């Protein structure tokens, strides 16, 4: 984009271009957050253990402030037990089923890539 301008209005043109760029980046980041959160919910629904299906179906995402939070709205109290395993009441252990950590790592990598693409334009 080339615009002929005088020295007096140069700072105005630079300010205008930077404001346009920052609003484009802001919109791109908001879209990236929403899409990555939705992809993470889908991934968690696939990876989660399914006994009755309630835990698996409970994954959702919501906007909190300026961020997106992925959470289990139905069986939130089971997440750490299923992810890490736990001790049984009569003795012994139940093995964990890693499903949250892999989804989190994938979301972080995807979001980082998306942010780099948005910033580069």
Brief characterization of the structure:
The chain has one domain (7-120). Helix content is 60%, strand content 13%.
How would you characterize this protein structure?
With 121 residues, the chain is an alpha+beta fold. It has one domain. It contains four helices and four strands; from the N terminus they run H-H-E-E-H-E-E-H. The strands form two sheets. The chain has a two-stranded antiparallel sheet with strand order 1-2. Strands 3-4 form a two-stranded antiparallel ribbon. A hairpin with a 2-residue loop joins strand 1 and strand 2. Helix 1 packs antiparallel against helix 4. The chain is rod-shaped. InterPro entries: HK97-gp10_tail. This is Bacteriophage HK97-gp10, putative tail-component.
Output the number of helix runs.
4
Q: Please state the structural category.
A: alpha+beta
Which bin fits the share of residues in helices? 55-70%
Number of domains: 1
- Overall pLDDT level: 92
How do the strands line up in the largest sheet? 1-2
* Beta-strand percentage range: 5-15%
Low-confidence stretches: none
Radius of gyration: 22 Å
Number of beta-strand segments? 4
- N to C succession of SSEs: HHEEHEEH
Give the CA-CA distance, first to last residue. 14 Å
């Amino acid at each position: 984009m080339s615009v002929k301008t005088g020295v007096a209005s140069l700072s105005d043109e630079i300010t205008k271009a930077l404001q346009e760029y920052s609003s484009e980046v802001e919109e791109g980041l908001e879209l990236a957050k929403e899409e990555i959160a939705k992809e993470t919910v889908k991934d968690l629904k696939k990876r989660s253990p399914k006994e009755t299906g309630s835990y698996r179906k409970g994954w959702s995402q919501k906007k909190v402030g300026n961020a997106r939070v992925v959470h289990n709205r139905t069986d939130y109290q089971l997440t750490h037990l299923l992810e890490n395993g736990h001790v049984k009441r009569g003795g012994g252990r139940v093995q964990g089923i890693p499903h949250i950590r892999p989804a989190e790592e994938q979301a972080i990598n995807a979001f980082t890539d998306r942010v780099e693409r948005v910033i580069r334009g």
